[in-house]
Each structure stands twice: as C-alpha cells, then as structure tokens.
Amino acid sequence: AQSVTQLGSHVSVSEGALVLLRCNYSSSVPPYLFWYVQYPNQGLQLLLKYTTGATLVKGINGFEAEFKKSETSFHLTKPSAHMSDAAEYFCAVSEMAGGTSYGKLTFGQGTILTVHP
Amino acid sequence: DTAVSQTPKYLVTQMGNDKSIKCEQNLGHDTMYWYKQDSKKFLKIMFSYNNKELIINETVPNRFSPKSPDKAHLNLHINSLELGDSAVYFCASRMVGLAGHNEQFFGPGTRLTVL
Q: What is the mean pLDDT of residues B22-47?
C-alpha cells in the first residue's frame, strides 16, 4: 500500500520568497513520485516527476524537487515565488512500471499556496 | 487540440437520476482512469481500464459503472444519484510500458452537483 502526506494544507509566502511545499510518502516498493498543480476550476497539470536516476528533478515554471529515499520525502521548492504560482499543489506516488497497482496515483491532501505582493 | 477531454464540464441534476460523463483522449494511450475529487479537494482513484479491460476497481458503490468502448474512450455512468456523489470527476490517461513515462494526463474535470 502507498500513502502520501503533505505537511501544511496552506502555505503563504511573499512574492520573491522561497517556496517550500513538503511531501512525505510511504511505499513498500520503489516509488514514482509526482507533483501536480491545480489552478482554480481547472484540471491537474504535471509540474515534475521522479522515476529513476537523478534525485533532483526540475520541472516547469522554475520548480524543482528532490527525492530523498532515507527521509521518504519529495519536497517541492522554488527559489522565488511569483503571483502566478498561487494554486493548489498535489504530491502523488505510484508504483514503478510493471507494478500490480497499474500505475494508479495515490495523492496527498493538497497544499494551497498563497502568494502575497 | 485537447489531449484529454471530458463532457460535460458541469452537470447539475436531481437525486435519483441517472447520468453519464464521457472522456476521450487523443494521445494514443492505452490506460485510462477515473478519479473523484471531493469537496475537500481530496483525489481518489475509482477505476482504470487498460486496453478496454477493467484493471482497477476501488471500493466504489456499484451504482457507478465505467465503460470503455475502445482505448480512447472511458465513460462513467452513475445510477440513482445521491447527494454524496457531488464532486469533481477527473479522467486521466497514460501509456503503460514506456519506462520513465509514468505520468498521467488529466482532463479538465466534470463538476457534478446533485440537488
């Protein structure tokens, strides 16, 4: 079984400040990890993913995340927040390709990011 | 062109009615999913089809019946709608078997409101 915990349902930062959204996962098998962003009344857009290889992954809009197996974490960061980053962010985990869960995503509870001018 | 599309975008209906939501993807993917996002924004898998075969069936009331006429389409029919069915339903698709390409592409969602 897999699970995801996102610490902090709401994060508020000033424009230009560092963004840090926390995600911890639990998985009995090697995981694939994802961050998705959801803007109001829209679907989910993939920000970035970790599958194998380099543990620091870069995504769209200046976001990046680091897979830390020892900490079972996959925190999302961005050096400088923009107003347009205001949205809800979801961390998700799935099994690696070929697993018996057929790639289903298990999501965290979501973190709403607010950016103040 | 929209990669994953859903119709309708909004659906308002009375309790007890039967309704369907349709999903189509033009990405050539072989696996499609239905997720439910509740009022607290929590997303949970409902069903998945791979090459028209049901492969995931989470604990969902049997009033919900998915149907995949072909690899590009996955529809969701809901009988005897209840207030608790009000949610946003997302369709997603992916291509199984491409190493390192495990991400799912999501549709825009269908907001179902049961009165």
A: 93
